[in-house]
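TA notes, week 10

Several of you asked for a full example with nothing omitted. So below is the full record: structure tokens for the whole chain, then the designed sequence directly under it. When grading your own attempts, check the secondary structure regions first.
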């Protein structure tokens, strides 16, 4: 069946208002896109991170009255709508269209993230099977990419790794496939732990090599390598705790940090770590270093 699509050009502070209003007037789906139509595949848990110029796309049934829809939206939001576009689109195989947008992605020299419907481009490489679009992290976001590239550049053979805020488990699983002896995952969201277990199983990971815990249950042990792809605020707040989880001489990689937050996060770890130059991608950064 065809659909009526409404596209609104909004700012991040308008997002919640217009999302709620669109759902109130009968939208069957609402999607956030950036100004270049790159979808958000990896929101942080419990958040809706948005670009400064965001498009909000809503689908309505084809027989929806456009005039009444716009009038109702204006009433609900208390004013004239931001720049918007309405068009009727034909039905299509949305699943196939979605799948066609995703190809295997390479990170560093050895590591590939491969969707389940694709063959591995380099069968002899390190191939991590994970479908884009799954919750909690799939490699498409710059922060995850920065961490994956960093892991690919480390000698992980026989190392004990801690993935703090593991989400989908992508970083821990990558570390294990790259030679780590064991990777421990922890996350505040039980659904993330379940996703980590499922993805580990898909990649043939022995459960004993990848135990996952809620933070309160995390064993008191130090890791050779700690990765934390969360947010700048928690990274600063948890600096003492995270530092204590890394062995002397161990490695640390932090991401989920905007470029303007880099100095604050670096300052929180500078006393305990010899920090590398900050790595940046698309306005996001990674901080890494070695424990003194």
């Amino acid at each position: 069946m065809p659909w009526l699509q409404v596209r609104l050009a909004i700012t991040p502070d308008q997002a919640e208002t217009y999302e709620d209003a669109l759902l109130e007037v009968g939208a069957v789906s609402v999607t956030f896109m950036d100004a270049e139509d790159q979808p958000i595949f990896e929101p942080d848990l419990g958040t809706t991170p948005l670009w400064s110029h965001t498009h909000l796309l809503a689908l309505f049934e084809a027989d929806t009255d456009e005039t009444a829809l716009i009038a109702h939206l204006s009433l609900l939001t208390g004013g004239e709508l931001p720049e918007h576009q309405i068009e009727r689109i034909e039905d299509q195989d949305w699943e196939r269209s979605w799948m066609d947008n995703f190809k295997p992605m390479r990170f560093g020299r050895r590591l590939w993230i491969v969707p389940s419907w694709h063959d591995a481009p380099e069968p002899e490489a390190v191939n991590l099977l994970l479908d884009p679009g799954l919750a909690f992290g799939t490699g498409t976001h710059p922060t995850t990419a920065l961490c994956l590239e960093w892991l690919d550049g480390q000698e992980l053979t026989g190392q004990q790794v801690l993935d703090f805020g593991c989400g989908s488990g992508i970083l821990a699983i990558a570390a294990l496939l790259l030679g780590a002896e064991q990777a421990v995952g922890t996350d505040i969201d039980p659904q993330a732990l379940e996703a980590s277990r499922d993805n580990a199983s898909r990649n043939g990971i022995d459960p004993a090599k990848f135990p996952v815990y809620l933070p309160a249950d995390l064993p008191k042990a130090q890791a050779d390598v700690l990765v934390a792809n969360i947010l700048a605020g928690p990274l600063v707040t948890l600096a003492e705790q995270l530092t204590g989880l890394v062995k002397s001489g161990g490695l640390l990689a932090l991401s989920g940090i905007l470029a303007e937050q880099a100095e604050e996060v670096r300052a929180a770890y500078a006393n305990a770590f010899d920090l590398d130059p900050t790595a940046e991608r698309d306005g996001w950064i990674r901080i890494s270093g070695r424990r003194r």
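Confidence is low (pLDDT under 50) at residues 35-51. Use that as a sanity check on your answer.
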